Amino acid sequence: MALADRYDCFLFDLDGVLYRGDEAVPGAAEALDSLRGRGKRIAFVTNNSGRTPGAIAERLRRLGIDASPSEVVTSALATADVLAARGVRNAFVIGEEGVRRALADAGIEVVEGEPERVEAVVVGWDRSADYAKLRRAALLVQRGARLVATNADPAYPAADGLWPGAGALLAVITTTTGAVPEVVGKPHAPLFLRAFERAGGGRPLVVGDRLDTDVAGARALGWDSLLVLTGVTDEARLATSEIRPTYVGRDLGILEEDPLPLDA
Q: What is the rounded CA–CA span in Å between residue 243 and residue 250?
């Protein structure tokens, strides 16, 4: 039986799985078209909190990959869900449009300026973050605001090298305050669970290129995973890792094959 026929829904990471930089991974569009032809459900799952689902779907379509905003689940959306479910009414945000819009759409006021108190401090990727924002965030946490991060990725992979990621900004606040943050994005469960719900449930397969986020997150939930070697993980890194995916493929073409589990 083809791997594609063993599961009901497929949760895809983006960078390193469907595209690299400004180019689609060869065969990615065809693999997703084949899944859709089988009636399989798809969600695109990303720790990126800066972009909206619409912007991410548009980027995928420009690369020839069929996608709609309703299929995109970002760490910003999952963060907004978590806070709204707890009745949080307002938040001070270090983050870009994606997380700000997600919070506002969930009915959470994004407080600007230098407030004395808020219910939550939300930290995401923010290319405009400066000392004043970080200072205010640290003060608000010391005054009782809960500290929530869209993700803890230390770096953002850009074309010219690694830029500070949301985790690097988060580290400024945790180092200053000693606070322990709640992290929503991969490898933590909230983002995966939101994507699973968006994809309609059933038996999921998590597809990614990172052991520490995609595969580790799937394992923690008891879900199967497919590691593709088109991104950051190569065979040498896999061989020395204690984090083991269910399946490994050179690329998404393995979905049409009948592979044995990695450690069968």
A: 18
Confidence (pTM): 0.93
DSSP class of residue 45 equals E
| CB contact at 8 A, 63 and 23 | yes
Is 251 catalytic? The answer is: no
Give residue for tokens 């230390």: 154
Strand partners, 122: 93, 148
Q: Which of 15, 81, 126, 214 is the catalytic position?
A: 15
Q: Which two tokens stand for residue 7?
A: 């599961």
Beta bridge partner(s), residue 164: 155
Catalytic residue among 8, 13, 160, 258: 13
Residues contacting 154, CB < 8 A, separation 6+: 164, 165, 167, 168, 171
Counting every residue, how long is the chain? 264
Q: What are the chain's domains? A: 3-47+186-256 (3.40.50.1000), 76-183 (3.40.50.1000)
Q: pLDDT tens digits, residue range 36-82?
A: 999 999 999 999 999 999 999 999 999 999 999 999 999 999 999 99
**CA gap 173, 123 in Å, rounded:** 9
Tokens in use for 241?
């890792």
**Is 15 noted as a catalytic residue in this protein?**
yes
If DSSP codes are grouped into helix, strand and coil, which group holds residue 55? helix
User: How far apart are alpha carbons 172 and 157 in whole angstroms?
Assistant: 20
H or E element in which residue 255 lies:
none
